[in-house]
Write a structure and sequence with these properties.
The chain has eleven helices and 20 strands. It has 431 residues and is an alpha/beta fold. The strands form five sheets. It has a ten-stranded mixed sheet with strand order 9-7-5-2-10-1-11-15-19-20, sandwiched between helices. Strands 14, 16, 17 and 18 form a four-stranded mixed sheet that branches. A two-stranded antiparallel ribbon has the order 3-4. Helix 2 packs across helix 6 (189-204), helix 3 (109-122) packs across helix 4 and helix 3 runs parallel beside helix 5 (157-174).
């Protein structure tokens, strides 16, 4: 019986998971998303063309591989349809190799309404939601009132839909939210609902499966399965910088509940980190840079959200947070992305500890959002040269290798690969 290997982000998201999944896909038979929804944006680039996926697993461009949307994922049918049509324009036919769990929950148009209402009600305490309906949909899932993919095949689907929509409208009104003025893009709620209902026909054309049985049979048959995470470990609902987090389990434990596999079925855990740090939206960010260096990282790294388009906050790599994420996930292998963004820097810095109340600490405090944290920074000489045309890991500049070695020393985890450009061909695996 084979194991499920896991690939997930170790920071606040946007680490480059989509590209790495695409690169690793030839080594696997099945690629399975285990959590998140259209709030994720996985960017892949090859043959000079950029591709952005939100719900569909990043192995979809390999037509001989099965891709699975697991039960832990949220699907917004209208966004899903748009994503399918975009793939078809690139000569990819997803119905051939994309399977969808019947137990995956749906995001209704009124979930998106409720998301906006909740965010407005928070005032200055906004968490920076993507407004894709993620929080309200997961809330309904936990409250046992949600609608699942399998429900679209049932005769009473419309009845379930209308009942849940009515509840959402009532909740929005209690928050004094102006439902009539709410827009999704340029559409009113009613207009968008028509689009949403039409998109269900696209959803029904896919292989809707009991994915937990499918995944476990694949493992029993010796097939190799890669679980793909969304967002990042520091956005985990339990262990992230709560309440500035997402609404699902983004760590390895989420694979078990999001795909229906036992803990003993987990194999290798590959964690991705940028060579620096970014974050979208509100919440603590101890190493954030507010100076020209931060702006340079944003510009050179093209740090704009694939889902929201918002500029990302940028800062130095954060070792206390990275060690924490490695611990929570049981990371066996590290993958470092985007060191090329800092090619021209005379020096690069690394936060090795936090200073809280004049005390040095390695731990993420419970009061992460309230307490003043000063990063204890160590400096490293920059490599100050292009990484273009570097063909193997050992040929990277000596100063970059020293910096990567420091990451390994601080985490206790070996680096298996480094990505040195957005293109899928520029991932250097260590021998």
């Amino acid at each position: 019986m084979s194991k499920v290997d896991v690939l997930l982000g170790l920071q606040w998201g946007d680490e480059g998971k989509g590209k790495i999944v695409d690169v690793l896909t030839p080594n696997y038979d099945v690629i399975a998303r285990f959590q998140g929804g259209p709030n994720a944006g996985h960017t892949l680039e090859f043959n000079g063309i950029k591709h952005v996926l939100h719900i569909i697993p990043s192995g979809i461009f390999h037509k001989e591989k099965i891709n699975v949307i697991g039960n832990g994922v949220l699907i917004e049918p209208a966004i899903f349809k748009d994503e399918i049509e975009a793939l078809r324009q690139k000569s990819v036919e997803p119905t051939e190799n994309l399977y969808i769990s019947k137990k995956a929950h749906l995001i209704l148009p009124s979930h998106r309404l409720l998301d906006a209402a909740n965010e407005q009600a928070k005032g200055n305490a906004k968490i920076g939601s993507t407004l894709k309906g993620i929080g309200p949909a997961y809330t309904d899932k936990i409250a046992r009132t949600g609608i699942r993919v399998g429900d679209v095949l049932e005769f009473d689907f419309r009845e379930k839909y209308q009942l849940l929509k009515f509840q959402h409208l009532q909740m929005a009104k209690t928050l004094n939210f102006n439902v009539e003025e709410f827009r999704i893009g340029s559409m009113t709620l009613d207009e968008y609902e028509v689009k949403w209902m039409d998109s269900l026909e696209t959803l029904r054309k896919f292989k809707l499966i009991n994915s937990e049985y499918f995944i476990n049979k694949c493992l029993k048959d010796g097939k190799r399965v890669l679980a793909e995470g969304a967002q990042g470990s520091m956005l985990d609902i339990d262990f992230g910088s709560y309440p500035f987090v997402t609404s699902s389990s983004t760590i390895t434990a989420g694979v078990c509940s999001g795909l229906g596999v036992a803990p003993s079925a987990i194999g290798k855990v590959m964690g991705i980190t940028k060579a620096y740090c970014t974050r979208v939206g509100a919440g603590p960010f101890p190493t954030e840079l507010f100076d020209a260096t931060g702006r340079t990282l944003c510009e050179l790294g093209h740090e704009f959200g694939a889902t929201t388009g918002r500029a990302r906050r940028c800062g130095w790599i954060d070792m206390p947070a990275l060690r924490y994420a490695c611990m929570l996930n049981g990371v066996t292998d590290l993958i470092v992305t985007k060191p090329d963004v800092m090619n021209d820097f005379e020096e690069v810095k690394m936060c090795t500890h936090y200073i809280i109340n004049d005390q040095k600490t390695d731990e993420i405090p419970f009061e992460f959002n309230e307490v003043e944290i000063k990063p204890f920074l160590e400096s490293y000489p920059g490599w100050q040269q292009s990484l273009n045309n570097t063909e193997n890991y050992d040929k990277l500049p000596a100063n970059l290798l020293a910096y990567l070695s420091a990451i390994e020393s601080n985490t206790g985890v070996r680096i298996m690969a480094v990505s040195i450009s957005p293109d899928r061909k520029d991932v250097l695996f260590r021998k």
